Amino acid sequence: MYGNEQRSHLIALTAVFVALIAVGGWVSLPLPPVPVTLQTFFVLLAAVVLGRYAVLPVFVYLLLGCLNMPVFHNGLAGIGVLLGPTGGYAVGFLPAAFVAGLAYEQENRIIRVGGIAAATLIIYLCGVTWMAYSTGMALMQAVLLGVVPFLAGDILKGIATYYIGERI
To answer: How many distinct structural domains can be found in the chain?
Structure first.
């Protein structure tokens, strides 16, 4: 094989995780206003596998969605999704992938677990802040609608991500 094998590997993994994040949006439990999907799991898993470069598949995913490819949750597309009440969660995937990826470049298990937890909190923070701003609802109401129903599932996703990361 000619060329840079590391770059080829990164491009291939980026494509795989773009597809997984998009497919994770189709695995959905439609709760109003924010559906439960597997997207956060695949964003965290990308961080485990790619480290800080996990921002690449997340960026490509967001770019494809903005270019009207139906990759957002439940097959939605367009920049309007990012400007809607759930857009903050998707935009939060970028800094979350970076933080979790940096944590997974460390060997310390506590830092890795902290990175997964911090990434999840970043997604919540971006999502709830944008939901409150875009809908005009109170911040506490946005937290009750946009965080509380998802805590148990996201804890399970974080645990699964950690144990899969230990096996990889």
So the answer is: 1
